[in-house]
Amino acid sequence: MPDKPPSVTQFEDFDFRELPIGVYMTSLDGQFIVCNRTLRKMFELPMIGPVVANIKQYYANPRDRDDAIEKVMKAEASGHGYEKHLVQFLVNGRDLFAEVFCKPLKDLANGHVIGFAGCMVDVTSDFETRQREKELREKVEELTFDIGRILHANTTTLVMVKQTLDAVVEAFEPKPYRELSAPHAEDVESMLTDHAGVLTNAIVRFSESADEERRQKALTVTQWNRLIGYMSFLREFKERIPTPESYPATLRKLANAVGQIHSSIVSGYMPREQSRELQNAAWRLERVANLIEVLETRAAVIQMDYTIHSLREFITSDVREPVTCQRLSVKVLIEECAKRLAEYAHSLKIDIERKEVEDSHVWANERELLRALSNLLHNAIKYSWHRDPERARPAWVSIRTKTRDQNIYIEFENWGVPIKREEIEKAKVFELGYRGEMSKDRGRLGTGIGLTDARRVAESHGGKIEIESRPAVRGSQNEKQEDYYDRPFLTKVTMVLPVSRR
């Protein structure tokens, strides 16, 4: 004799109508036997009276119910009880996502399954939010990959540019100096001043080497006026050109203009010796200005290459293949950082000094820690000063380490651009994209992520970043002085990490 389905009267003492979750019972074939008000609202069923509906008709994919029943029966057989699963329903054309808890109903007499009892929670809103977050995350990862690819292509282009500039520099033979590094600002000014003086004297001797009649036949009045004007400008170029960075380009153009005037001289009217002297003086000034610009551009390309590479590493850090932590030598890490930035430091004539570097070990992600330490060293190099003529020693950046209280202190110190006390105390320097007020002189490139990333890496390894910046000259401690931040500072950025005990 077949088992009879349970009737509503069997459950009259079970009052679950006002529970905040949907509660229901169905027959084996899915016909609703009883359900509370919450479930009626979820499936838009009549709020009173019997429910003439089958749960199977609401499944977005009918096969999902068979799969769910199979899981429930397996869980029951293994003694695990209720089985939770996410089900997608379709109610009057709208999606309903619910977490369903279900177990079989058994006939007490023979133990046969006669239906199912369960409850469900509407998670549609949370599910859709998670889906949107997932889609957004996938888009961000895709965008990050594209940005990384673009930045990688840019670094490849910069390598090609640098190689071209190297070839251009090598073509300047004989050179006024042998190194490929950009000259210091004071050296540039001195060199250009000397060549400008030579060209000024050449213009004077050229203009005085013939009488008025021959001069007027050799060049037009306009050309002579230009030469005289150029002579005046060359004598006063430091006062007339707004910034020292513009000296080479401006004098290069002026020297080229003098060369063009020389090429238009009508032969036979001016002495050959003075004419040749004018040509050579203009050519030498144009040549040295070109060389200075090429070397400065080369230094900027090297800096840009590192900046873009560092930015790419930072942007793609969360989507790249994870690297496990390992026991690392601090001394080896520092040597690798110095090696990475040796060319950049050399291009700016800055010595990287490793002093008192202990061979301690840390437990860390090598890729992340190398990037963070390299950023700190790069900042120290970039914000060094080179223009103080009274300094006896060359420009430098020092790296020191010391171990105290089970921590390793990795210090990067430089002589140069100050960091304002307020920026340190209010942690402005750690804000993503923030660049210090004093860091933007002389067109130094930057993204404002180096310190942000370094602190994030340090903290993820149980460490921290400390910063101090003070006047390099003792007795210059009065911040109220107008020129307080115009002088060189000693700035020290320290990464503190736990010493590895493994």
Secondary-structure element string: EEHHEEEHHHHHHHEHHEEHEEHHEE
Query: How many separate domains make up the residues?
Result: 3
Number of strands: 12
Strand order of the largest sheet: 2-1-5-4-3
Structural class: alpha+beta
Strand composition percent: 15-25%
Helicity range: 40-55%
Q: Any idea what the shape is?
A: elongated
Number of helices: 14
Biggest β-sheet: count, sense, barrel?
A: 5 strands, antiparallel
Cα separation of the termini: 72 Å
* Uncertain stretches: 9-14
Quaternary arrangement of the chains shown?
single chain
**What Rg is obtained from the alpha carbons, in whole angstroms?**
39 Å
Indicate the topology:
Elements: E1 22-27, E2 32-35, H1 37-42, H2 63-77, E3 83-91, E4 94-106, E5 113-122, H3 124-171, H4 185-207, H5 212-218, H6 221-235, H7 237-240, H8 247-263, H9 272-315, E6 326-329, H10 330-340, H11 342-347, E7 351-354, E8 361-364, H12 366-382, E9 396-404, E10 407-416, H13 421-425, H14 450-460, E11 464-471, E12 489-498
Parallel strand pairs: 7-9
Antiparallel strand pairs: 1-2, 1-5, 3-4, 4-5, 6-8, 9-10, 10-12, 11-12
